[in-house]
From TrEMBL, chain A:
InterPro entries: AAA+_ATPase (IPR003593), ABC_transporter-like_ATP-bd (IPR003439), ABC_transporter-like_CS (IPR017871), ABC_transporter_ATP-binding (IPR050763), P-loop_NTPase (IPR027417). GO terms for cellular component: plasma membrane. It is a peripheral membrane protein. It holds the Pfam family ABC_tran. It is found in: Cell membrane. GO terms for molecular function: ATP binding; ATP hydrolysis activity. Residues 4-229 form the ABC transporter domain. It comes from Prauserella cavernicola. Keywords: Antibiotic resistance, ATP-binding, Nucleotide-binding, Transport. This is ABC transporter ATP-binding protein. One of its GO terms (biological process) is response to antibiotic.
TrEMBL record, chain B:
The keyword Lipid metabolism does not apply. Keywords: Antibiotic resistance, Membrane, Transmembrane, Transmembrane helix. It comes from the Bacteria. It comes from Prauserella cavernicola. InterPro entries: ABC-2_transporter (IPR052902), ABC2_TM (IPR013525), ABC_2_transport (IPR000412). GO terms for molecular function: ABC-type transporter activity. This is ABC transporter permease. It is found in: Membrane.
Amino acid sequence: MTVIEIAGVSKRYGATVAADDVSLTVEKGEIFGLLGPNGAGKTTLVECVAGLRRPDEGRIRVHGIDPARERARLRQVLGVQLQDGMLPDKLRVGEAVALYRSFYRDGADTGRLLADLGLADKVDAPFEHLSGGQAQRLSIALALVGRPKVAVLDELSTGLDPQGRRQIWELVERIRDTGVTVLLVSHFLDEVHRLCDRVAVLDRGRIIALDTPDGLVAAEGGGQRVRLRVAGALDRDALAALPEVTAVTGEDGETVVAGTGNLMHAVNTELVRQGVTVTELRLEQATLDDAFLALTGRTTQENSDD
Amino acid sequence: MTDQITAARPGLASWVRLTVTEAKLVLRDTAGIVVPLGLPMLLMVMNGIGSDRTGVPELEGLPALDAVVVPMTLAMVVSMIGIVNMPSFLSAYRTFGVLRRLAVTPASPAMVLVAQVLVSLAQSLLGVALALGVARLAFGVEAPRSPLVAVGVFLLAAAAMYAVGMLIAAVSPTVNSAVAIGLVVFFAFFALGGGFGGRDNLPGWLADVGAYLPFGASFDSLGFSWMGVGPEPGQLLALAATVVVAGAGSARLFRWT
């Protein structure tokens, strides 16, 4: 069942095109990633889904609801964790959750929600005393307290340490396990790879790829390289003739063998057959970073024109 | 599937909770409540000690403490809370994304506005009650001779000050600018309205302007209610006009994010 439908959506701010004919669908129970560098139009798209902005063109439906026209109904099914949303310094965790719970007719059990998010012992802590990770978890709690069918999580692990990020990721998976559909906005490839069932890569307002994370990596060229150094002569043509190998290149005495399938085993067997002494051998898996670089010509860290 | 999803606005319990929460936040902001609650009492004490309760013929036989200091203090409390405190709170909420976060829940950000106004009105009433209590118990200040007029003028004055405060919150890009604009506007109204001494010390045209700005109009009208003299219709009209113009302007200009 399609939960979020985005069809032909465009949004401009003056001369800047924030969304250019974007179309995608998110199915029930999916964790769907919106990936792209800063300024790619991720937040604009999310704000259109959340009913905070109206697209210039195109159609958006969330559980059949038009966010631009039926915001009040949308609020019953959509929970949103926005980037940079703060709370008053003196507001305590328990008060914030109880207040947000009161906005909904049916909502989550606040005690259990706080326990699930590891905030049970922070009930009386004012917002100003929370760490980045705690504030982020509270933010997620507020997005989930109305028991939404769809949750939008925008840059949820920005500013967290590695341990905090892993905790948040486990949390997102638990949220999905309760049947909630998740739209995850991120510019972290490892996050997207770990969590998302499917990913749309956005660049300058356009979708330039839409696939599973592994699909994106595979599309980039199968994704394996063996780098090796040997003492003595190496028959590179014999390596290149192997069915698993797609290319053999050399750099500074190092041989790079690109290919697919059980590449390492094939290369090893050939090296043993040639009887050369291997001094260095390592396997590189292509990552989503490589795929992203190939797709956009840039890394996710470049192009900060947001 | 979709037709069972119906819009549901937060109920009364939610409004009450939001208002109580706002009140707690205001109380926890200790520095913010010292001025509106402490300063009026201090003014009462300082002026009360120097007063010998001699009636002044020009003030319909009332001592200056009753006919001038008490009305001035009341006008000061509402203008300070409405023009300085409330916009700084609202502006902080907007700057730090508190309103934006509310905008994605069934709660309307307008709920925050209403809660803010209710809480700061309660704050004003508390400040007024404390000042009047001190004036009454320590210095024997009389109740206004026209009590209903006094209440009506006070509410009109509060509405005018809040409208100006909302306009300031609407046009201030940052929290600091909201506080700065609020203070400048407050002191301008206060000085021109006679807060730093009689308006007769000002050039004539400036004194006339000050009399129709919210502080001067509230101050004079409250003074008249204490003396039992009918208020100046022009000044009441000026207050009402402030409510309409500043209120409409802020409604037009206010940005939630």
